[in-house]
Description:
Blueprint lengths: L4 H21 L4 E3 L12 E3 L2 E8 L9 H11 L4 E8 L5 E5 H4 L5 H4 L1 H4 L2 E5 H22 L1
Amino acid sequence: xxxxxxxxxxxxxxxxxxxxxxxxxxxxxxxxxxxxxxxxxxxxxxxxxxxxxxxxxxxxxxxxxxxxxxxxxxxxxxxxxxxxxxxxxxxxxxxxxxxxxxxxxxxxxxxxxxxxxxxxxxxxxxxxxxxxxxxxxxxxxxxxxxx
Length: 147
């Protein structure tokens, strides 16, 4: 790959994921986090309650995510965002890892602990978008109940 090619490939993948989020979830304020190039532990995209790390690589003997990728997005999310890892290897489908706590309220970090609540569950990207849409719908419903 040409010098800088991996960065170009990664940026193109980030733009693709951001476009998918806009199209499928209706979130217009999806932004690439350009601080990621200057600071450690920053996610690639910020979209509503989600911080998203995007990885697009050539297969290296595996087509599964690497634990340090998940650890990176968890650090980037902190306690303010829900971490989402979106990854793709060449000639393989896009997949996403989401924390169990985002899928099931019984994984409340205050009850089961942060380590268990942040255990990743991997699914295809379309299913991840549906889960993210459900989270956004719950947040809107909660906001309406408070008003």
